[in-house]
């Protein structure tokens, strides 16, 4: 039987790997663990990108909504102004048109 000292046990991890079934399975397990970690990291990154996209889209929608509301307010104010202008000038325009239509002047055309 062969004895292993405490010192040898502590530094056994630094010894080169021999091809034994146990070491091979440990190596495969380590590779699977690393691969799973990489996949998890990729999934986290994908989730972050998706969350950022949703955030940007909602911010864009909010700003577009604000712009739309501002445009509606501006249009509504313009329409109100036009209606007031029409109401205040309506009688004067009708009187002017009636004067042009009914006030016939007899003139000769120079052609």
From TrEMBL:
InterPro entries for this protein: V-ATPase_G
MF annotations from Gene Ontology: proton-transporting ATPase activity, rotational mechanism
Keyword entries, A-Z: Hydrogen ion transport, Ion transport, Transport
Q: Name one Pfam family in it.
A: V-ATPase_G
Gene3D superfamilies, per database record: 1.20.5.2950
Cellular component GO terms, alphabetically? vacuolar proton-transporting V-type ATPase complex
Residues covered by region (Disordered): 14-63
* Compositionally biased tracts (Basic residues): 21-32
Q: Which family does it belong to?
A: Belongs to the V-ATPase G subunit family.
**What role does it play?**
Subunit of the V1 complex of vacuolar(H+)-ATPase (V-ATPase), a multisubunit enzyme composed of a peripheral complex (V1) that hydrolyzes ATP and a membrane integral complex (V0) that translocates protons. V-ATPase is responsible for acidifying and maintaining the pH of intracellular compartments and in some cell types, is targeted to the plasma membrane, where it is responsible for acidifying the extracellular environment.
What does the record note on quaternary structure? V-ATPase is a heteromultimeric enzyme made up of two complexes: the ATP-hydrolytic V1 complex and the proton translocation V0 complex.
State what protein this is by name: V-type proton ATPase subunit G
This protein's species is Caenorhabditis nigoni
Q: What is the lineage of its organism?
A: Eukaryota, Metazoa, Ecdysozoa, Nematoda, Chromadorea
| Gene designation per UniProt | Cnig_chr_I.g587
């Amino acid at each position: 039987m062969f004895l292993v000292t405490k010192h040898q046990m502590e530094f056994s991890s630094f010894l080169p790997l021999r091809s034994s079934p146990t070491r091979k399975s440990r190596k495969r397990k380590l590779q699977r663990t690393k691969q799973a970690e990489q996949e998890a990291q990729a999934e986290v990154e994908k989730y972050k990108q998706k969350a950022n996209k949703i955030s940007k889209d909602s911010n864009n929608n909010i700003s577009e909504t604000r712009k739309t509301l501002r445009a509606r307010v501006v249009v509504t104010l313009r329409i109100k102004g036009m209606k007031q202008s029409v109401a205040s000038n309506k009688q004067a325009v009708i009187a002017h048109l009636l004067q042009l239509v009914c006030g016939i002047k007899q003139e000769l055309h120079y052609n």
